[in-house]
Amino acid sequence: MIALGSDHGGYLYKEELKKHLDEKGIEYIDFGTESTASCDYPVYAEKVCRAIQSGECEKGILICGTGIGMSICANKFKGIRAACCGDHFSAEFTRKHNDSNVLCMGARTIGAGVALQLADIFLSTEFEGGRHQKRVDMITAFEEE
Ligand code: RB5
After folding, report:
1. What is the phi/psi pair of residue 18, to 5°?
2. How far is the CA of 128 from the centre of ligand 1 (A)?
């Protein structure tokens, strides 16, 4: 199950992404927002991150204007590794090397077609483990300080 969230800046991309996931038969929960009315992105970042923390969802995708506010916020939550991506290589390697569980994107910085492709890459790429597991463990250890 994939958790989706956006603010007003990312709302239309989130709706496009939902159609795209529907076509692929990928299940998701939409945690809002519900329109292009101005709202606060931390509200939706929190909902998505809590759904991952609880185990309700495996991964999340957050979209705001730049993807940056969402990623800053998401990375405050224990167990969340959020990556703000605007290119295909980053979307692939943040899964392979960082075991990222949240993809953040900016609707004002990348095209909708690219956003859908980045989501596909993020959702279909496995973590490589091995030497990267140790590094992810080092990141996790910082959460205990
Ligand atoms: C909203 O105007 C904008 O600040 C937000 O979508 C996002 O880009 C924040 O990082």
Report:
1. -60, -45
2. 32
What is the total count of domains within the chain? 1
Please tell me the predicted confidence (pLDDT) of residue 29: 98
pLDDT tens digits along 33-90: 999 999 999 999 999 999 999 999 999 999 999 999 999 999 999 999 999 999 999 9
Give the Cα separation of 96 and 41 in Å (integer): 27
Q: Measured between alpha carbons, how far is 122 from 24 in angstroms, rounded to an integer? A: 14
Q: Measured between alpha carbons, how far is 46 from 68 in angstroms, rounded to an integer?
A: 14
88 part of the active site: no
Residue for token digits 């076509």? Answer: 23
Per-residue pLDDT tens over the stretch 33-42: 999 999 999 9
Say which CATH number the domain at 122 has: 3.40.1400.10
Residue 40 belongs to what domain range?
2-144
User: CA–CA separation, 36 vs 31, rounded Å?
Assistant: 14
The set of protein residues with a Cβ atom below 6 angstroms from ligand 1 is: 7, 9, 41, 64-66, 68-69
Tell me whether residue 64 is one of the annotated catalytic residues. yes
